[in-house]
# Entry
Amino acid sequence: MPSEWSGFSTSRLPTPPREPGRLQNGEVLPSPSSLSATARCPCLSGNVYGDCCGPIHRGDAVAPTAERLMRSRFSAFALGLPQYLLDSWHPSTRPATLDLDDGLRWQLLEILRTVNGGPFDTVGTVEFRATYRAGGERGELRETSTFTRDGKRWFYVDGVID
Ligand SMILES: [Zn+2]
# Structure
């Protein structure tokens, strides 16, 4: 089971600051624009990336609801954007680093239930099922994630895996 969603597997040791968009080994991260703006968004909202999670990943827009943040985080997992995942993680629970598993391909997101998390709420939960492939095998993760709003921005706080 991938534990990166809830941060259990990630190191909490402090790391030296690094250039944004660059991994510690010097490898350059794929930029959010590496997915065409007209491609179907990985969160499966039905919209194209350029009208959905793309602007949120680039910082040109904020997710107005907890569910939108959840979707943008799923897309970030699917596209391999650890910096966005860290930036959208609440500082109180954010790991120091996040190593995404290259062997894992996130494929499907289903939002099962959303409680609060609207533009005027300060807390919200989103229950979802995410499907992935790893080494030819299909797996799924079911989690209820908690989000909190700070100003206009929603942040992921933590999750309980069902
Ligand atoms: Zn999207």
In short: The longest strand covers residues 137-150. The beta strands are 104-116, 123-134, 137-150, 153-161. The two ends are 11 Å apart (CA to CA). Confidence is low (pLDDT under 50) at residues 7-29.
